Amino acid sequence: MACTAEDVARALRAVAAVVKEHREELIRLDREIGDGDHGENLARGFTALVSKLDGDVPALPGGVLRLAATTLISTVGGAAGPLYGTAFLRAATSVGDAATLDAASVAGALQAALEGVVARGKAAVGDKTMVDALTPAVVAAEAASAGGGDVGAVLTAAAEAAEAGATATVPLVARKGRASYLGERSAGHLDPGARSTALVLRSLAGQVLS
Amino acid sequence: MACTAEDVARALRAVAAVVKEHREELIRLDREIGDGDHGENLARGFTALVSKLDGDVPALPGGVLRLAATTLISTVGGAAGPLYGTAFLRAATSVGDAATLDAASVAGALQAALEGVVARGKAAVGDKTMVDALTPAVVAAEAASAGGGDVGAVLTAAAEAAEAGATATVPLVARKGRASYLGERSAGHLDPGARSTALVLRSLAGQVLS
Amino acid sequence: MKKIINDPATVVADALRGMALAHADLLDVEYDPAVIVRADAPVPRKVAVISGGGAGHEPLHGGFVGRGMLDAACPGAVFTSPTPDQVAAAVARTDGGAGALLVVKNYTGDVLNFETAAELAAADGVDVRTVVVDDDVAVKDSLFTAGRRGVGGTVLLEKVVGAAAERGVDLDGCEALARRVVANVRSMGLALTACTVPHAGEPSFTLADDEMELGIGIHGEPGRQRVPVGPADELVPALLDPILEDLPFAGGDRVLLFTNSMGGTPLIELYLAHGIAERLLAERGITVERRLVGPYVTSLEMQGMSLTLLKLDDELVELWDAPVHTPALRWGV
Amino acid sequence: MKKIINDPATVVADALRGMALAHADLLDVEYDPAVIVRADAPVPRKVAVISGGGAGHEPLHGGFVGRGMLDAACPGAVFTSPTPDQVAAAVARTDGGAGALLVVKNYTGDVLNFETAAELAAADGVDVRTVVVDDDVAVKDSLFTAGRRGVGGTVLLEKVVGAAAERGVDLDGCEALARRVVANVRSMGLALTACTVPHAGEPSFTLADDEMELGIGIHGEPGRQRVPVGPADELVPALLDPILEDLPFAGGDRVLLFTNSMGGTPLIELYLAHGIAERLLAERGITVERRLVGPYVTSLEMQGMSLTLLKLDDELVELWDAPVHTPALRWGV
Ligand SMILES: Nc1ncnc2c1ncn2[C@@H]1O[C@H](COP(=O)(O)OP(=O)(O)O)[C@@H](O)[C@H]1O
Ligand SMILES: Nc1ncnc2c1ncn2[C@@H]1O[C@H](COP(=O)(O)OP(=O)(O)O)[C@@H](O)[C@H]1O
Ligand SMILES: [Mg+2]
Ligand SMILES: [Mg+2]
Ligand SMILES: [Mg+2]
Ligand SMILES: [Mg+2]
Q: Which residues of chain C have a Cβ shorter than 8 Å from any chain B Cβ?
């Protein structure tokens, strides 16, 4: 099973739906240790992306990912806008002008996305950010791909690892992003960006499998 | 029993103590249908009066009443400042330079005080103001004085009538003062100025009797 | 009650000390009795324009003392009208020989205390006139009540009359102008939350999460009507329509639109409401020629807003545009 | 949540419409992407000074657009940094050929978005420099964290650098001056109440009746420490002492003292706090040569305040005094 541009677009619509569904949850998480806009920011961005996809779906998977990148960069704002935007931009570059994406290219795209997020945000694992979800996701995706899994298996493995990584942010003291201003008081809360990263990966996996 | 300047001063100290004691109650009443400062305003004024009396008590009852008038005018503010001030000023004028006050002169002073309040504030009985307490008080004081009562009896009669008059303001719709802005919503509340008038008269009576 | 204060009993004097330090170039502050005076007072041969009222409405009135506006302001205790000796001291301190105009908001306490002060000043030989501002359309006017309250229109009057006095208009002229402003200005306000007077320690009223008070005054007193909060597109007409009907204002009129925050409503909401009000006026063919947007007549930390409309003519526009240099309003200098 | 708004999703655009109408003489407003531009932009051969950040801090930054201060401001959604296309549009709209200085408050989101914008503008051939303001002493600085936040000092920097740009100082000079301001300005804030972001619908945190947050930022985020509310005589030193120790400021220093309301704290309390701060500084032999008191860097309706101290020299004093004509600050014109 390989993904066409239409498949990627459909998967991104699924992400948009899930983000919208979890908008309040992400707002609440961000209110606890941030400024309460993460759910609103992502919902605004993915809603804008769906409008663009309603207009015209680019021919290649890389084009769809690039459209996601530029749309998120110009509509999300906050820390998540450039970080998610860069992730999609690097993913787009990584898949190049392939007509379809297979398991290896999806795992590679995730790897590229992580590198982009780290390049922009300079966070390391343990800083209580989306990097804590994305890093184990990339490791799991590569393992699944190397083990012969298909796109669905790769994304499912990534989603599971991201969820575990997100949960593991709870006890951490934030060292990057707005939550870091709270110092010790940031401990005991789930990082909103890690949570949204897990949600995005889970909805991608769900869509590809269905 | 006739009152000297010292007696009047002592009576006013008693008033100050009672006003202070009922400060919160008067604030609460004024919060309900006004702006919540009546208790604070009167407490400030009578506290200032006590300081002045601590310095020097004028020789004549009229002088003490005049001191009360000018002190209240320059420290109370709000509607109650000029109204209470005028009341004491007219009372002072009414007793003239008598060395002591008897029942008739006390009743006359109350009458003069009421006339002063009406002249300044232009309120009639039923407008839900201090006039609703002071008017029956004057009537009762004159009856008590005409019936041969002493100063204590005159003030007790005035205080009782004032209390009844104050209570009777509850169902009224205010037509003067800040409460009038509430229209129908002012009904169901005790007028703070009527309540304070009753308190002042009751404490004067209590002091004279004790 | 959470406030940045020391003692409710000294809050006004304590704030005056900070104000004096913050605006030493513009203001002299006296404490006993409390008066905020223009630093260069008295200005010879100029009518002294003086106002005052309870504290808690800042920048009203002290923030409007300075060149081209007020000569002095008399702050009472919070939400309590000042005492006559304050006003008399203000007159004595600012009288430049051309008399004094007292700008009084129509509240029983203010009217009675300024009345007494005017008597005192007149006894000192100063020609004193009083103009009572009563622009609040939320209160039904009647000879048998306390009448309408003075609210937002007061600032506009102080600016316009202050400009006239600065130009040398005499006391008769200033008084007539002030009455013309009163005749042509109307306001109405609403509150989303109550405020807490420091010495009271508790909010002046309580509102449910979906309620607002329509037709509030500026003293934390409840309004005429408690109604559900709607979107801004409903709130703004709820203020504007009664104002327009009252004067009435009509198509072709030129107006100054003053969109005022009661203190706790942030600028983002205020601009939003202002935009709606301008649109509604444009739809009726009323031309907004001047505007003022901000927290100028407040009720401590109360969330809410008021709208004020002043019907303009060329003279009023010119006086509005004239230089002013006060802590809260400044232009042309 | 009670606010004077229609739809949380359109609140920024709706407010911009009102702002555009209120200040048509000073500002041009563009909506897609959202940029507030000085009406006479681009000013030929002048460095464009541009800032931006989440909405909800009004008058920051849009209220400081105008002669002698900012050329453009980019408002993000409430408490959300603007997007790179907004900043790029602002540069394009205001570039007078002398380059652009981007004034960025140090928040991850702001830094990342402005960084991307600077790359876009550089690709268009505009010389763009970025200065990051990080004056909040409540946050411990470290290479391994997001670093200190940019708060009240931003306004002072925008005024001073805006004045320099207006005088024709070139991009190198403006950048160096901006870095000098950053090096000499320190702030700290506290909150008595939280605020409610429109799209969140609930307060960003809750405080008991006797609690305050010490060391808050300006985005409704909780502070470092939750402590009991004391009298103003304790609150003011709780802000001032960490500021003084940090730079450090010392006896003999000349400073600008900026006493800022977070929005919901009324002027009466702010002046009171300002007076205390001036007294404490005088006691240490620090000379307050200039001051700014008011709600200039706010967090919606949050009650609270911040203090900012800028160490002055003759050049900074002169630039502070230079003419400015914006919606929120105006003098000398
Ligand atoms: N430097 C960083 N590197 C990676 N992720 C980060 C960084 N800073 C913040 N984040 C992520 O961004 C999330 C917050 O996003 P959002 O609320 O949209 O932005 P903002 O903090 O500007 O309001 C955090 O929960 C965290 O996961
Ligand atoms: N015109 C009036 N005549 C007589 N009494 C009045 C009048 N207006 C107000 N009052 C009295 O004053 C009281 C309020 O006093 P206070 O709260 O001190 O003044 P303010 O209303 O200015 O805050 C009212 O309860 C009422 O009894
Ligand atoms: Mg956030
Ligand atoms: Mg009262
Ligand atoms: Mg009062
Ligand atoms: Mg944000």
A: 9, 33, 54, 76-85, 107-109, 112-113, 115-116, 138-140, 144-146, 149, 197, 199-200, 202, 204-205, 217, 219-224
Give me the pLDDT at residue A159, please: 98
What's the gap in Å between C188 CA and the centre of ligand 4?
A: 21
pLDDT of residue B52: 97
What whole-number distance in Å separates Cα of residue C281 and Cα of residue C256?
Answer: 11
Q: What is the CATH number assigned to the segment(s) C185-319? A: 3.30.1180.20
CATH of domain B5-209: 1.25.40.340
- pLDDT value of residue C148: 93
Q: What pLDDT sits at residue D246?
A: 96
- Separation of alpha carbons D111 and C88, rounded Å: 57
- b/e map of C182-194 (b: 16 or more CB within 10 Å)? bebbbbbbbbbbb
Domain boundaries of chain D, sorted by first residue: 10-184, 185-319
**Residue D153: per-residue pLDDT:** 98
Test C58 with D268 for CB contact under 8 angstroms: yes
pLDDT at C143 over 70: no
Nearest to D121 by CA among D89, D94, D97, D96: D89
Within 8 A by CB and 6+ apart from C31, the residues are: C13, C16
Predicted local confidence at residue A14, as pLDDT: 97
Look up D61 and say whether it is catalytic: no
* CATH class belonging to C13-184: alpha beta
Looking at D23, D61, D199, D219, which residue is catalytic?
D219
What is the ipTM for the molecules in this complex? 0.92
Cα C164 from chain centroid?
18
- Sequence-distant (6+) residues with CB within 8 A of C70 are C38, C49, C50, C51, C61, C64, C103, C158, C162, C326
Do the Cβ atoms of C29 and C297 come closer than 8 Å?
Answer: no
Q: Per the structure block, which two tokens stand in for C309?
A: 């409309």
Quote the pLDDT of residue C146.
Answer: 83
* DSSP letter (8 states) at residue A127: S
Handedness of CA B147, B149, B155, B161 (dihedral sign): negative
Interchain contact A54–D (C-beta under 8 A): no
Cβ–Cβ < 8 Å for D262, D308? no
Chains interfacing with A (3 or more CB pairs < 8 Å): D
What are the φ/ψ torsions at residue C31 (nearest 5 degrees)? -110, -25
Percent of chain C at pLDDT exceeding 70? 99
* Bigger pLDDT: D140 vs B148: B148
Q: Is A41 in the pocket of ligand 1 (CB under 6 A)?
A: yes
What is the reported pLDDT for A1?
62
| Residue C221 confidence (pLDDT) above 70 | yes
Q: What integer pLDDT is reported at residue B182 of this predicted model?
A: 87
Contact C81 B79 (CB under 8 A): yes
At the topology level, CATH places domain D10-184 in Rossmann fold (3.40.50)
| Cβ neighbours around A30 below 10 Å, total | 32
Measured from the CB, is residue B79 less than 6 Å from ligand 2? yes
Residue B149 Cβ inside 6 Å of ligand 2? The answer reads no
Instruction: Give me the mean pLDDT over the C10-30 stretch.
Output: 98
Domain boundaries, chain B: 5-209
Q: In this predicted model, what pLDDT tens digit does every residue of D196-238 receive, in sequence order?
A: 999 888 888 889 999 999 999 888 777 778 999 999 999 999 9
R_g of chain A computed on alpha carbons: 16
* pLDDT at residue B1 is higher than 70: no
Is residue D143 very low, low, confident or very high in pLDDT (cuts 50, 70, 90)?
low
DSSP for C106-139 reads S-HHHHHHHHHHHHHHHHTT--EEEEEE--BTTS
b vs e for A54-84, b when ≥16 Cβ sit within 10 Å of the residue's Cβ? Answer: eeebbebbbbbbbbbbbbbbbbbbbbbbbbb
* Residue A42 φ/ψ, nearest 5 degrees: -65, -40
Look at residue B208 in the predicted model and tell me its pLDDT.
Answer: 78
